[in-house]
Amino acid sequence: KAGVTQTPRYLIKTRGQQVTLSCSPISGHRSVSWYQQTPGQGLQFLFEYFSETQRNKGNFPGRFSGRQFSNSRSEMNVSTLELGDSALYLCASSFSGTGYGYTFGSGTRLTVV
Amino acid sequence: AQTVTQSQPEMSVQEAETVTLSCTYDTSESDYYLFWYKQPPSRQMILVIRQEAYKQQNATENRFSVNFQKAAKSFSLKISDSQLGDAAMYFCAYRINNAGNMLTFGGGTRLMVKP
Fold first, then answer.
1. How does pLDDT run across A2-47, given as a tens digit for each residue?
2. Cβ of B106 and A42 within 8 Å?
3. How many CB atoms sit inside 10 A of residue B17's CB?
4. What is the pLDDT of residues B27-81, one digit of tens each?
5. Does residue A107 come out as left (phi exceeding 0), alpha (psi in the -120 to 50 range) or beta?
6. CB contact under 8 A, B43 and A88
7. Rounded CA gap, B91 and B56, in Å?
8. Residues in chain A whose beta carbon is closer than 8 A to a beta carbon of chain B?
9. How far apart are CA A46 and CA A56, in angstroms?
10. CB B88 within 8 A of CB B38
11. Do the Cβ atoms of A76 and A64 come closer than 8 Å?
């Protein structure tokens, strides 16, 4: 059974650009959550999508957005990149809102220069 | 707001010995879950153990066990017979039940295992 797949694994972008990260959940999982991990702020929740609807949202500026497709794959987008957006972005999927089988991917390491 | 605090940035243990990682949390909710996750250099967060707040019995998974003190809002992880493969970052996390999949994490504890 394939795990949670995040692409790309590494990404370098220039300040001011935008970026799109992808997360393919485990087959059958309908919930996808995103987290940002930085040395200074630690792990912070970005948002959760369930059946194509945003269900929860963390305290991040509007430059951070996401969406979920009908096949449960999710993308997150960061516009007008800032140096502080350099981080490891993790996604996690689950079958439902109960967290059953909550599984993380290996993340995308984004570096903004 | 819910907060999770891990007061030990780094811990060290001798192989085969026992180590305890500390975690405290603050919440006004009564129905929640607590977790310990391990993050090795591969970056993937791996679930070590989970505890339902309504259960008084402490969770155990092989060499890993927790000491859950609900009144004190304390949730420590004990690793017995430490192995080299246990070396990693460990994160304590909290989730409110029936509120979706949103985890609040502590700052993490780096565990080093000495051979």
1. 899 999 999 999 999 999 999 999 999 999 999 999 999 999 999 9
2. yes
3. 13
4. 999 899 999 999 999 899 999 999 999 998 999 999 999 999 999 999 999 999 9
5. left
6. yes
7. 22
8. 31, 33, 35, 42-45, 48, 50, 55-56, 58, 88, 90, 92, 94, 97-99, 102, 104-107, 109
9. 8
10. yes
11. yes
Cis peptide before A8 (omega within 30 of 0): yes
Q: What average pLDDT score do residues B70-94 get?
A: 97
Q: What whole-number distance in Å separates Cα of residue B25 and Cα of residue B2?
A: 7
Which site among B43, B49, B94 would you substitute to test the A interface, given the most A Cβ atoms closer than 10 Å to its Cβ? B43
Q: Distance between CA B106 and CA B4 in Å, rounded?
A: 5
| The length of chain A, given as a count of residues | 113
Query: What tokens were used for B77?
Result: 């992880």
Can you give the pLDDT at residue B101? 87
**Token pair belonging to A14:** 């220039």
pLDDT at A1: 65
Q: Report the distance separating Cα A96 and Cα A50, nearest Å.
A: 8
User: How near does any CA of chain A get to the CA of B112, in Å?
Assistant: 18
pLDDT at A97: 67
Q: Is B99 on the interface with A (CB under 8 A)?
A: yes
Flag if A48 and B101 touch (Cβ within 8 Å): yes
